[in-house]
Amino acid sequence: MVISLAMPSRLHILMQLACQLYKAMINMKFEKSAFTGGKQPFLITAIALLAGFSFCASAVVTPTTARKQIYAAAQKQATTVIQREAKKRGWPKYTAKLNIFVPAEATQLSACAKPLAVATPDNSRINLSRLRIDLRCTDTPGWTSSVAVKPDITMPIVMARGALERGHVLTEDDITMKKYNVTGTRSDILWRADDVLGMTVKRRLREMTPITPGMLEAPIMVERGQRIVMIASQDGVTAQTTGTAMKKGRRGEIIKVKNESSGQQVNARVTDFGTVTISK
Predict the structure, then answer these.
(1) 216-237: per-residue pLDDT in tens?
(2) Between vectors from CA 96 to CA 163 and to CA 114, what angle results, nearest 5°?
(3) pLDDT of residue 280
(4) Rounded CA gap, 4 and 152, in Å?
């Protein structure tokens, strides 16, 4: 809930009405012939208009309050924190709506003559669902205040287009990008399709479920006992032969394989479906 500003006083309303009348006079086309007595009435009218200008200039100046100072400082600090976190997490384009809760006691505080000192509690991982911002007026006497800010941050993320069963390997037809409020998500979110394509679903996912890294695992590319291609590289020279996988493996995993021609068992890294690489 964004804080509401105080209602204008009766005096302020009367001043605004007077200013509106003054502006109406400015818009009128005064002809010299309309004034009796020559130049003197015109001069008096001009002086009156200048006086009205000074009156209105003072009327539109709204006194600064501590409540407004607190709101503005909290808004600026929360925006800075969100921008820093978005850059740290590598987020693409996002939108953020700030819900700022200023304590009621702020109406009892005097406006601060100096800019407010602002601080956000230092945490290893910022909780964007609820930010606490501490503010301090360094006047003598001064005051302190704490403000709660609850942002609503939305951005396009990867979601399951339909229900997906455990063990399913994701393709472009399985996912969609949709705007989602990521403020309260407890796990990392995925916003690039390339991060999920070719991955295996670890558990059943319902339609329009936001996909997170914990829901996925690299697919099994080599099964135990499977006949595989073994690629060996050394000094820029590449050799290829066939072998048998002694255990199953996912991309990047090191598994034991048996060379068919020599019968020797060696360690190899799974690089693709049915393919391993041996580095010497």
Answers:
(1) 998 889 999 999 999 998 878 8
(2) 160
(3) 64
(4) 19
